[in-house]
């Protein structure tokens, strides 16, 4: 059910939610969080998300996790953020699986665990999440939690870059520039760096604003 396509007021949605249907309960929370046909109210959003999450609604659990992580409508609590995100991820929600990787990588509500983070990224990537593919590429390139493999990193960055993920576009440009995981190709390196810059990736922008450094790289 696409909440954005419901032509209902928040009060009408509440009436439907009273029947206990978890998607409608989630919808009320979504309306309040995003100010759809009502004013933004993070406290109400959190309360409705919690009701839906208790019924196993994955999107509600994920949104509630994000509210706890940011301290919106609830007191900031990274541990609760992690637990609700885990609930959503285990239900198969791809966005939650990606975010679980971030939680475990950055130590949000839990001790950092790069191996488990990679596993969650892999699950999200299997469902077509290109952000997760980019993160996996970074692991293969650094040799963190998995064996160093620039070839695998290149393939993952290439998929994500073609899906317009700026960080993947920049990383792909670096691999082409130095011939890691692929043949060295400065023309393609410049192409992907420009793409990353056009998409607002700061490191690519900084490099393009320093033509003297770019010239040095081309002479290598």
Describe the structure in your own words.
The chain is mostly helical and 220 residues long. It has 13 helices and no strands. Helix 5 runs antiparallel to helix 6, helix 9 (150-162) packs across helix 10 (166-178) and helix 10 (166-178) runs antiparallel to helix 11. The relative contact order is 0.06.
Sum this structure up briefly:
With 220 residues, the protein is an all-alpha fold.
User: Termini distance?
Assistant: 54 Å
The total strand number stands at 0
Helix and strand element order: HHHHHHHHHHHHH
- β-strand percent reads under 5%
- What is the CATH superfamily of the largest domain? Tetratricopeptide repeat domain
**Level-1 CATH class name of the largest domain:** Mainly Alpha
**Total number of helical segments?**
13
Average pLDDT for all residues: 94
Instruction: Give unreliable regions as ranges.
Output: none
**Fraction of residues in helices?**
55-70%
- Our Rg estimate from Cα atoms comes to 21 Å
In the CATH scheme, what's the topology name of the largest domain? Serine Threonine Protein Phosphatase 5, Tetratricopeptide repeat
What global shape is seen?
elongated
The largest sheet, given as strand count, sense and whether it forms a barrel, is: none
Question: Helices and strands: which structural class?
Answer: mainly alpha
Q: Tell me the domain tally.
A: 2
Just name the CATH architecture of the largest domain.
Alpha Horseshoe
């Amino acid at each position: 059910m696409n909440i954005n396509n419901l032509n209902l007021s928040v009060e009408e949605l509440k009436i439907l939610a009273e029947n206990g249907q978890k998607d409608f309960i989630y919808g009320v929370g979504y309306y309040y969080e995003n100010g759809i046909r009502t004013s933004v109210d993070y406290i109400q959003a959190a309360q409705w998300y919690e009701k839906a999450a208790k019924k196993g609604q994955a999107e509600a659990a994920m949104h509630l996790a994000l509210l706890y992580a940011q301290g919106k409508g609830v007191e900031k609590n990274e541990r609760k953020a992690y637990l609700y995100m885990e609930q959503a991820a285990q239900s198969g929600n791809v966005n939650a699986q990606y975010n679980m990787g971030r939680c475990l990588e950055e130590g949000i509500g839990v001790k950092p665990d790069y191996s488990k983070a990679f596993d969650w990224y892999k699950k999200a990537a299997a469902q077509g999440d290109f952000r997760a593919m980019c993160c996996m590429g970074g692991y293969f390139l650094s040799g963190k939690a998995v064996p160093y493999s620039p070839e695998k990193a290149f393939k993952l960055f290439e998929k994500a870059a073609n899906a317009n993920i700026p960080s993947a576009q920049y990383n792909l440009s670096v691999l082409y520039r130095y011939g890691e995981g692929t043949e060295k190709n400065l023309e393609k390196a410049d192409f992907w760096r420009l793409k990353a810059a056009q998409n607002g990736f700061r490191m690519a922008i900084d490099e393009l604003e320093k033509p003297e450094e770019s010239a040095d790289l081309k002479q290598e």
